[in-house]
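FAQ: What does the model actually see?

It sees only this:
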Amino acid sequence: MTQRIENLYRCISFALCAIGLFLSSWIILPAPIALFLPLSVGAPEVSTWLFGLNLVGGLLVIVEARKRLLSQIALTFSVIGLVLCLLPFSQLSTVNQQAKTSMSQSLGIDYLGTVPKDLESQMRPQPFVIEDSFKGIQTEKVRYTSGILYTQNNGEPLTLDIYRPSQVGQYPGVMVIHGGAWQRGDPLDNEAFNRYLAARGYVVWSISYRLAPSARFPAQIEDVRAALSFLRDHAIEYETESDRITLLGRSAGAQLALLAAYTPSAIKIRAVVDYYGPVDLEVGYDEPPNPDPIKTRVVLETFLGGSPKEVPKLYEQASPLRLVKKSLPASLLIYGGRDNVVQSKYGRGLYERLKREGNKVVFIEMPWADHAFDTVFNGISGQLSLYYTERFLAWALYSN
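And it is asked to produce this:
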């Protein structure tokens, strides 16, 4: 019986070390196909949990204290896993300093100087709080209204969800546009983020739009503009100050948010937040990432109805980079350095173009992060991006 227990103990410790290393390896490995994207996206964000898993596995091996080949292999797995888990944290300080510098250079050293003190006191105190990576980011009670019809296209109803602070009043608005390669997604995506913002004094308008392939561009941007018109007409009803509006989008939604912010619409847009959005679709088609887990060219052809050679004007019209000029709304651009869906170099290119034209723009690149990093709301990238997003929004909507 004792031998059986020892063998079981040895198997468990080896399994923990092997599983820990396998999961931790996705902190540096790119996803070769879409099936592995959750691993590549999630591993850096839950690195605190993976560190614990690797540590437990390693301690179990050490407690056994036997110089067996299997134990030595398991301990090696554990050590490698621990090192991998520390990589994002080894880069956090540098990235945070770069983000802080970018914010102060673009928005001013004292960019929060005129923000109400009660709002500033509600913001996250640090770019990363380790306790929150385990227990989650708490959100207070807000008022939520779903399924609000804002337009119909050929009989297809389009709806939006609204998140409001618990207390009745008038607040700045943030229109959130979901991602999903223009083919999927809905207003419920990133609900925790929407509730967090609403609890801190914003009315969040989370919208739907027509999806490809049944609807191709420019249908999607037409829907965003229709949502903005609805916001203008119903702002008082939903306690929103229509002269203080920011657009925020993720991935495909960020592309739409940038297009709407950089072109005339029903209301004036104060600022735009771009989370890992495509900005130059023709170049993205001609130079797909390697590996290419979502098959970029297929996605773009589905969205636009063909290749750049077949529909060149649509690729140009759908590329926010081509719309850059002077006096655009302030932009916050946040990208992951390991993103093989929308590579961070495109975000940096947009940043440099906007800066050359004299626009206010902040660029934050997190070298450990993959696409859709904020899917894990309390992950290292989710916390860092939230920290600077809420400060950018406060500056754009409360201090101007």
